[in-house]
UniProtKB/TrEMBL annotation:
CDD domains: GATase1_1 (cd01741). Residues 54-176 form the Glutamine amidotransferase domain. Its EC number is 6.3.5.2. Keywords: Ligase. This is GMP synthase [glutamine-hydrolyzing]. Coiled coil: none annotated. Pfam families: GATase. One of its GO terms (cellular component) is cytosol. PROSITE patterns: GATASE_TYPE_1. InterPro entries: ChyE-like, Class_I_gatase-like, GATASE.
Amino acid sequence: MKIGILLTGHAPEELKPHYGDYIAMFKSLLSGQDFEFDGYKVVDGEFPNSVTDADGWLITGSKHGVYEDHDWIPPLEDFIRESVTMNIPMVGVCFGHQIIAQALGGKVEKFDGGWAVGHQTYDFSGTKLAMNAWHQDQVVELAPGATTIACNDFCQHAAILYGDRALTVQAHPEFSADFVDGLINTRGRGVVPDEVLEAAIDQLDEPTASQTIADQFADFFRQERPR
């Protein structure tokens, strides 16, 4: 099964030598799942020729906001809607979570409650799962037909399911603790309040359920669905 990874933002240049870009991180997260991967730098205007070029699509995180004026965002939203119409499964993470919601009729905005950084625990229908997060923007209104499947006190729509068409999460299962530490020092200082960063640093060693989320992504991609 071929998974196309749509890169919507670049990792900090200082961290790439150690961790690679976000495409590499998702390849690592989904390694061992018997997938093939193609990557497309949509943030730089590089798009697939067709939504049928892969058996499933994954949209990465980004430093950009989905409501910002970038030339590549409207065609990405068109791509999302076409993929959903053709029932080609799609997974979205952070920015991907938000752009899928926006493309399908939901609402995203900069959350007035501030930032979520580092270790966060979410309620998945009674099961507590932890992931690393890095966001201020949030989905604040669901798209028609969407269902919230995870939340916490800070993020009401932390994971969303769109039937068998799309599965999205706000947090970052692909982010290791070391990478979050790197983000704190390259993008966090002077942007995110110091107390939020210090709280994140204190919890860097807390375990996450990244592999559990990766398995959920893989199972979602492999679901049998009509075309």
